[in-house]
Structures are given as structure tokens and as C-alpha cells.
Amino acid sequence: MRIDKFLGNMGIGTRSEVKQFIKKGLVKLNGDKVKTPKTQVRPEQDDIRVNDERVLYEPFVYIMLHKPKGYVSATEDDVHPTVIDLIPEYQHLDIFPVGRLDKDTTGLLFITNDGKFNHHLMNPKQHVEKVYKVEAAQPVRDQDVEAFKAGITLKEGKLKPAKLTIGDDSNLAYVTLTEGKYHQVKRMFHAIDNEVEALHRERIGELELDASLEEGAYRKLTDKEMNLLNYKI
To answer: Residue ranges of the RNA-binding S4 domain (predicted)?
Structure first.
């Protein structure tokens, strides 16, 4: 890989900016000053430094985001701001959201540039649980719990059984799914003659949203958290 491409991918600067760094003698490869942006590097092996700070190779990134309302789960949108707009630090790595949350839904959302990670968590065959907190317009009833357990029927057919738990307030409930149909939770509540007033995703698999992350805040996943998701890089 050319060194200007590598440094650009790692967010050091644009190709033209990297060329200026090289021209000023700020870029070193294994202790030697780089003289041309065409210089070939081995990202996983070489010691590459800019202004004496080592640039570590980071091919994949895994981010936990506390999604706020008003942002769409997409990489770009002509009308609404996207969740990627919240993460300028890693946009150079072509990051994208893992699955989606509706524009007015808040909570746990993963951001990555690793397609296998996305498949691991979102493929229905993996049976990864997603837990949502629901504020409902009407009280949730015991018969609703049984209906979710039996499998709600939508226009595309009968859904897999889902767990519905009534909270301390009967208008508060928690839904556990292993599917990810379009607007699924809202449509399931509509099917039981109720409506969702607020929706918040709390957990994916065994990993809960970090309570210290305010809406719009994000951080990289730890090795321990990656293990909780049963994913090895």
C-alpha cells in the first residue's frame, strides 16, 4: 500500500496534505524520512510516524453510539442528519450503522466498517437478542404478553415469538426480539391495538448501552465487550 493512501485511510489528512507532510520531512518509515508519497508500506509491520508520533494500523473500528432522536440510521441522507454525522473522527474509514433505529428511536447503536460484524449481529439466523424499552399509549395487558409469546402476525406473515415484559408502570414495557423487521416494535404494538409513544434500545446480545454515554456520545468497544458479543476480529 502507498504511504499516502495509508495515512489518508488512518485519518492523518488528505492526499495533498500528506504530500506536504512528506515534503516537510515529517513522515518517517522505520526511522527514515519518506521522500515520496509512492513509498510502499506494510501497515501491520512497519513503524510509520508523522511528526514523531506513530500511526497505528486500524483496519476495522467498532463503536458504541447512544443514538439521539432526529438522526437517521444511514451513511447519507438528503433531508435528515445521519448517525455518521455524529462521528467525524472515524468517517475516513467508511463507517456505517449496524442495523438501524428509526429516526425518532433512541438508544444503543453500533457503528463499524466491518461487514462481517454487521452480519454476525443482524442476521436473523444468529438469533441475537435486541431489547427495547417501550412507552406505550395504553396500558400493556397480560393478554398482550401472551400474544407476543405466540407470535404476532403482520402483513409479511407470523413473526417469531417475542418476549414482552410489563414494567412497574403498565404503560411501560420491555420487548426482546431476535428479528429486525421494518418498524417491527411499533407495528407489533399497533397489532395489539396499542401505539408506541417512545422507543429506546437498551441491549444487543449480552451488551447493554453504557449508562455514562449521553445522547449523541460514542466510544470504541472494549475487548471485553467484543467478547460479550461473541465476535473475534
So the answer is: 1-60
